[in-house]
Amino acid sequence: MSQSEADKVRCAECGAPLQGETSKLGCLNCLLLGGPNEPVSENRRFQDFEICCREDGVTLDELGRGAMGITYRARDLTLGSLVALKIISARYSGDPDSRERFRREARAAAQLRHPNVAAVFHFGETETGRCFYAMELIEGETVEAYVRRNRLLPPYLALEVAVQVARALIAAEAHGLVHRDLKPSNLMIVRSESRDPDALVVKVIDFGLAKSVAMSSAEGDETRVRFSGTPDFASPEQLRAERASVDTRSDIYSLGATLWYLLCGRAPFRGSSAGKPRAEALPVEQLALAHVPDPVVTLLRSMLASEPGGRPSSAQALLTELQRCRQVIANPSFSFT
User: Which one of 9, 27, 164, 187 is at 20 to 30 Å from 232 when CA atoms are compared?
Assistant: First the structure.
């Protein structure tokens, strides 16, 4: 039986469909960018860090890959602790401009110190030009994996995830940073120290695409024609590659698409691609089928407004709306019918 467009499994990194044998190998689109066996280093050493291998002792312990780099589980040989090590892809390592961009974005991400953000604490470059940076290793599972394992999240719990991400965005906004790639696979759920089994701690990972708003403006026309992000969760202005207009409200849109995913098990607009206009109307029938309460539907309409001016004006404004919505549906007198 042929698979419908809506039910196709898609790559979490680039949004491309995974079909047949392709899904066993991974995403061909991502493989073309980085290669399935991209050379790293003969001894896996990057200064004081060494990439870990999986149980077979040969396969590198890859945690994820994106447009510019691959992230591995690694060990800090000085301290003996485990870290997440992001390494620039070989296809970019020979380009001075790409290395400088990678360095700037690592520096931008390192500015953030927040309980809901995975910290970046070291940057380095090998003699052969392979840039890398070390991040806090988050032991847990992605929100995407959590949803697949537990199915859909109830509205109150989905809003709690969004509240914690909004707090991370407030910290990013204070530094003039935009994440540019918020999505379920870039949010980690870690075990809470609370005794409440439903308590969740969410950490935003991979600020590798994060960029200062001021930096984007200073980089000129080149930055306004290159798409960065994951199409299904990217804002319309990102898809149009209008870099000059990408600010916190773009992250708010991506968080709205992520909240939609938590409630419905899919992004609102699947199959999106850079330069391709989306339908104007949100497919709210998906929310009705998932029995999403009206206050949450109203909030999602605001977060997913096609124009930035229709969304909450700041991360703080978004947090206020999320908390208000959560209070409404938590009220004993509130009816979901």
Answer: 164
